[in-house]
Amino acid sequence: MERQITQKVASLPTIRRLPLYLHLLKELLKAGECVVSGTLLAEKMHCEPIQVRKDLSLTGIEGRPRIGFVIADTIRAIEDFLGWNNPWDAFLIGVGSLGSALLGYKAFEQNHLRIVAAFDNDKKKCGKTIHGKEVLHISKLEDLTQRMHVHIAILTVPQSSAQEMASYLVKCRIDGIWNFTPGKLVVPSHVIVQNEDLSSGLAVLCKRLQDRSNS
Questions:
Q1: Is residue 28 classed as helix, strand or coil in its secondary structure?
Q2: Is the pTM of this model over 0.85?
Q3: How far apart are the C-alpha atoms of 164 and 190, rounded to whole Å?
Q4: Segment 47-80, tens digit of pLDDT
């Protein structure tokens, strides 16, 4: 099915919804379905059908009248739009409790992110294998970044060393940092930082629970 790629810029809420569509569509395809209506997608996503059409139109895919969306084509369109048609390689920096857990998170590879190595400055951790990934000393990062052409780093170091490590990643020519440390990182404008502040998410959850109990 031919589709025209739109030049529109997707909002962050739309980008965050696209993996949810992708998961749902793959489940439908696995169940033997070939097409799905926008109405059914809207029901599953708890939104309006017009929102589904707007979201998916950004990927260049359009539903067919009285038929709906061809599932295989829509999956391919979303993956192309997100850059998930080819795996992204990443390094993980900081093999503490969180870093070790992320090394074993299988959904990363399902979403086309492949952690190819882990790094730490603790010599006691270096040389160990955690969830099939060898832990290397941080001093090897710059050379391997250039040799393996890795552009993404997952940062799970203590907050006290986060900025220093972020600056080092920039020096090593890392273009994207997925930051799991609290606080804002200062990096050049060409480096993309995606912050995942777990403490902020916990604060929102606890505050909402508190407000509900007080109402």
A1: helix
A2: no
A3: 18
A4: 999 999 999 999 999 888 888 999 999 999 999 9
